[in-house]
Amino acid sequence: MKFRPRTLSQLGEMIVGDAEEGDTSYFPYRSSMYITQFFEEIDTEHRHDGSTRRRWAADTVAQILEEPHSGPHIPPDTFTRLIRRLMDQEDALNEEKHRPKALALLNAALQREGFEAFYAEDNQCYLRHISTNTLAMPAPNPHRPFSPAEVEKREQLIAYLDGASEDQLIEDVLLPLYRQLGFHRITAAGHRDKQLEYGKDVWMKYTLPTQHVLYFGIQAKRDKLDSAGVTKAGNTNVAEIYNQLLMMLGHEIFDPEIGKRVLVDHAFIVAGGEITKAARNWLGNKLDATKRSQVLFMDREDILNLYVVTNLPLPSAAWPASARDSWDEPPF
Length: 332
Hints:
The chain is an alpha/beta fold. It has twelve helices and 14 strands.
């Protein structure tokens, strides 16, 4: 990933504290020792060599941008840590704590490259790619311990999923989540035109760092997915998924960006409830080895954990009445 020289120069000035608006600076001045300390705090081994401070900082940012990254619209993890450290609210200078003027200067530079910085609810600064709305952040760890605020957010999302329809699960939860995770060209078939689904509710694509593209289809169900002979009301038998899965893997989709029809590389089976181990095994035994390797499972626990660690706002559309009764107004 490469930024324009002007952008790199402006970022270098902000890092060393030479960026000014008029006669006022909103970034703390850093001498050689503190520049080195800045880059140590973002887990790099860059050490200021005594050369011109702003030029050295700009060149170092350029080196960081050349590090491996997970997609064309996601900068390297080191760069996201650099922005977060640069915009630490404890470094507020000549303005209020949430640093609106420093943020404006930063965004004036970043928007030239298609990115925007913003503060989230945790008061940390994040980057998003403007045209795709992809959040640029280190790969989320859905298995880490959650903070009390994240636990509360998780409970609110559970309340939403308990009352959400299948279309709401797709449109209000899954589509924003997959966009946040770096998937693009996300197209929802919906349930208004069943004839055009061909066994899939959503198709999307993901660009690898090598610029190769993988295509994914999603078959989503709002409730538990099991393999029992007779399922409880609301649950879905995995046998119902089987034919839809074969249709998804065998039917071509048209990608207007390249003007060609392509096959789905992988299929996500997504459930708003639990996907039982028996259901996974039943489906695995029905599919041959080739198709079995194309199937990915995602149940409620996966959705909840990923939604929280990617810092997505809770869905605002169609908040379930059972959940709304607990609050005077929606809690987001």
